[in-house]
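Quick bug: S-adenosyl-L-methionine-dependent methyltransferase output formatted oddly.
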Amino acid sequence: MKRQGETDEQDPDVEFKKPRLDEEDPVIKDDPDWDDMEVKLEYNDVEVQNGGENEGFSDEEDTKDGIIEKMEDIEASDHQEAGEIGAAGELEPQTDMGLRYKVQLSNIYKFSSRGDVEAFCKKNGIVNVKVKKIPKVDNALLTFMSEAEMNVALRVLDGKIMKGKSVSLNVLALNVPQRKEKPTRNDRSESDDRTPSERLADQVTPLWRKPYEEQLAIKSTELQRVLGRKGLVSELYAIQNLREDQRRDLAWLESGTEYTGGVPCPFRDIIPSPITENYRTKCEFSIGRDLSGELTVGFLLGGFRSGEMIVMDPSETKHVSKPALVFARIMQDHVRASEYPPYDRKLKSGVWRLLVSKTFLSGENMMVVQIDPRSLTEEQIAQEKIALQERFAAGAAAAKLNLTSLMYQEWTGVFDGFSDKAPLTLLAGEPHVHEVLCGIKFRVSPFAFFQINTPATEILYGIVKDWCGLSAGVRDTVVLDLCCGTGTIGLTLAKLARRVIGVEMVKQAIADAKENARANEIWNVDYICGKVEQVIPQVIKRVTREMKVVAVLDPPREGVHASVIEAIRACTELRHIVYVACNAAAAVQNFVALCRPTSNKYKGRPFKMTRAQPIDMFPHSKPVELVLEFRRDPPASAPAVADPTAAMGSVASVGANPAAPEGGSNPLAA
Ligand SMILES: C[S@@+](CC[C@H](N)C(=O)[O-])C[C@H]1O[C@@H](n2cnc3c(N)ncnc32)[C@H](O)[C@@H]1O
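Here's what came back:
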């Protein structure tokens, strides 16, 4: 089934026939259902959702009414990239200096409580929100601390089903000051002597004023806080009513005294990004007017108490790639020459909305122009498409850049970013671009997630490979690439693994992953389109117990839903996880859920965190990638296994072994 906006021409959903299904491979049980798994899982998905528990949303009505989130309804953009520059130029959810953003959530069941609305938001990954709900009315007021958080909610929640009703969102107020008398940092005042470029830089790259070494130290200290005594450790100790044996399961936390910053496992020095300037491979540029009223393609300068919408030239920012700056300028020339106005986010009128750029070190570049077509005739739109083609082709040629793909999107929704809810039309070139990572060429679709700093990603994947315990010539490990996106992590590991099984809920990304496997002639991989929490028990059943299994979990920045961790905990055969977190603070509840003592909800033995490695992917900005390794003992009754890394020895030996070798396949064997 195609998702909205997919046509054969735009995105040929290449059917990947595994050229060599390893029928004799003992890793994967010879199961005729395996090839049909994608189809079966979609069917199962329906069954699970109708009959199963809906964690985080206590009311039973969703399931009674048969409310089903079909796979094709799941937004690609549910996986907001870490540090993504949205249309507003935001880099991460951060409070916008005392400002508030208010949104009305409409068409909800009028007897819903505030708790119901909060649970609905939480279930969809929206946690930093204040909810007001008046009894017996069919709407609620959502207040966000930052525009970035509001934008994510607009994108994720709009049209979702709550208690049998499709909710809608409407922005009520932007930039509302928390206290009227308190001026914001960006208000035009005598006291703010920053240049406009500095204001923008403070917003999109808040660490830019500090030397890079200092930025790294700040990030490292913050991660130690998140994992250490004021974060993960204290959250685990705070769990109430534990039995004596459960308390013993937390004994490894004591080793926090032996490692850096109170982190209860080896915490390595942060690895700097190999490039610190112009590194971003993806940007979303707004279109509007700058402080002098000039039409500009750049980043929205937030934080004006008056609610002004100012778009700033991005050319002095440190992180935007040079090709992206050139293409933004080409778009700006087009808009300045156009007779049509830019889109006004407050009035919700006008034409030019957004330019999305994907610019890769491979030299391939994709541009998506987003417009609001409502004020244009069919004929005017047709003319504009031709004019855009000509403008971009000439501009790219003059700058000696490849314009691999030029796309066009008509969007009338409330969300002021790049939405995958409207189709794309190919104006010129190919429907995909490619990037080379660790020697493998990856196809990237417009909506698919791809890491935004290629050289730093290669370092990250090297760590993941080492920590998975993979080494040349052995090939005894099955890698579960959970939240695999376009398959990048698993495919870079495949030649060292017995088999790679990728799980991802976005269909277009799975199509990319399959095509990436085929194009790179990597055959020991399988891809399953589904939610990890629903797929994982079936996947595990197909992996024989005698083999080593490692799961790489690389979720969106807020981590995975609690049900994913529940499912992982319940799979007793899975005892080794390499978790890639792009926002450890936001994902800390996942770490707590992995490590907390066994409970009715979290079955199976708890994991222990065994090492931590930060890598900077976002110079000048606050996010940082963190690779964490988790391991656990086999269940008491489990038979001996062939996997030497799974035999963890005593609980105490995990945390209490500061001499554990780093980088080897078994840090616990020493
Ligand atoms: C940070 S991206 C990582 C993608 C990939 N590992 C990479 O490095 O390019 C997170 C991915 O998780 C997917 N995702 C989020 N929640 C999921 C779930 N419950 N089940 C399956 N995939 C999920 C998103 O669609 C997204 O592609």
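Actually, after a second look the formatting is fine. The two ends are 51 Å apart (CA to CA). Closing.
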